[in-house]
Amino acid sequence: MEIDFKENKGFRLLQLYERLSRGEVIHKAELAQKFAVTDKTIQRDIEELRSYLAETRTDEGEASIVYERSRGGYLLTHAASEWLTNEDVLAVCKILLESRAFCKEELDALLKKLLRQTAPHDREQVGKIIRSEQHYYVPLRHGKKLLSAIWELSQHMTAQHTIRISYCRQDGTERTHEVNPVAIMFSEYYFYLIAYLADGRKEFPTIFRIDRIARFVPTGASFRVVHRRKFSDGEFRKRIQFMYAGELRRVTFDYSGASVEAVLDRLPTARIVAQEGGVYRITAEVYGSGIDMWLRSQGSAVRVVESLS
User: Which of 26, 80, 142, 188 could cross-link to 211 by cystine, CB 3.0-4.6 Å?
Assistant: First the structure.
C-alpha cells in the first residue's frame, strides 16, 4: 500500500523522527519534495516534534532539534552530559580491542553499536582510527560467545539463585559444582564468576572462568547473604591478584625497583610503612596465592619480609 504523506501527518512525523534518531541531517526542501508538501508544512512538523521532545525525557536524556547552518539542515542533539562523545566512544572502543575478551563476532557487533552513538559525520573519523586494530584483532583461543552467559549469570546472582555449573578444568576434566554467585569480574583477558560453594565448606569465594563454564542451571534453591558478611566485589578486587582465590593474607616486602608508583597501582591495598636509601617497605592485604606470582616476577627488586594468613 502506497502511503499518502501529504494527507497523513502521522506518517510524516514518524519518518522525520526516525531519520533524526539515526543521526541524519534533514533538509526542508528535500522533504517537502519527497512528501509533496510545502516547506512551511515541514517546518510545522519540525516544530511539533520540538514541542514533543521538550515535554519528553527519553532514556538517552534531554533531546532537541537544532538547525546547523554549516550543514544547512536540522539534526537531533542530546545533552552533552548524558550522551557519549566521540572521545568517549573512541576510548571505550580502544579498551574493548585491548581487552581481547570477546570473540570476533561479538567484538564487531559491540564496536558497530558504539560507533552508532556518534554523529554520522564523525563516525567515519572514529572508525578510521580503530580500523587497523579491529582488522588485526586476535581473539582468545577459546573462541566462545560470552555476552549471553554473562547476562544470565548476572540475573541468577541478582536473584540470589543457587546454580549448578559444569566446569571444564585446564586439564580437560569436567567437574560439577553447586554455587552461590556473588559477583562477575573481568581481569587479565577473562571474565570470571565469583561464587561461594553452596555446601559452605570454604569460607572464601571460589573463582571460575566463565568461558570454561560448559553449562549452568538453577537448582531451585536460593541463598541469603548475611549483611555483616556481605560480599563486596570492590573490596575483593582490591585484594586479588591474577584471580587466584584463597584465604586473606597480609604480605610485607621491601621494594627497590624503578617505580614504587607502579607497585601501589598494582596492589590497591598497599601502604608504604618505611623508606630508606631508595628501598620502600610495603605492606598489603591480599587474597590467595596470586600475590606470590607477582612478587616472583619482580626478581631482585623485591624481598619478602613477612607473609601472614
Answer: 142
